[in-house]
Amino acid sequence: MAAAPPSGGMEGVGPRQPSGLGGNVGLGGISTEGMEDLPKYDEEIAKCKRFLLEFEDGEVVNIEGGEDDRGPGVDSGALPPAATETWRMPRVSDVRLDWCSAFDKDAKGPAAYLGCGQPAADAFCRSVGYASASNFKKDEQIEDETMFIDQRTLNTHTPKKDAFRFITCMK
User: Fold this and answer.
1) Residue 113 pLDDT class (50, 70, 90 cuts)
2) Where is composition skewed (Gly residues) in this entry (predicted)?
3) Where are the domains of the chain?
């Protein structure tokens, strides 16, 4: 004799299935045949990480996730390093990366700023294990501290500085 349907107007749904995953019938009558190996899949799933992608002007400008020293979004043994990777507001020693790679204290005016733009972006990419920068964007006149990547010194020469909004590095 079939079990009575649960209260709440579910007449006609048929007999209730046992709860739990015992045997080869699970919740709602779904077969669990062949699911004995689920723990090994759980281990693989546990290796996966969630990634947060930020977009700006239609481009990915930040990837967050992963947890090892190869950079954001990389998990030990899960995936090979990407051919390109983008850093939003890149930092050196936890300080925003200056738009220029060095400062000549003996020079005056704009000539004192050396290796601006592409050279500084390339130096950053090399410092994180990539060959060069394929894309970058300037953040103008910011009030944050910035650091010259080649000298590893703070830019203390002006209250407003130029920095990188993002840098995309490539292998």
Assistant:
1) very high
2) 20-31
3) 13-47, 49-170
**What pTM was estimated for this model as a whole?**
0.54
Angstrom distance (rounded) from CA 81 to CA 100 = 27
Tokens of residue 97, six digits: 């990366």
The closest alpha carbon to 33, from 42, 24, 41, 23, belongs to 24
Instruction: Give yes or no for a contact between 45 and 38, defined as CB atoms under 8 angstroms apart.
Output: no
**DSSP string of 15-26, one letter each residue:** SPPPSSS-TTB-
Tell me the C-alpha distance between 126 and 121, whole Å.
9
pLDDT tens digits, 53-99: 455 555 555 554 444 444 444 344 444 557 999 999 999 999 999 99
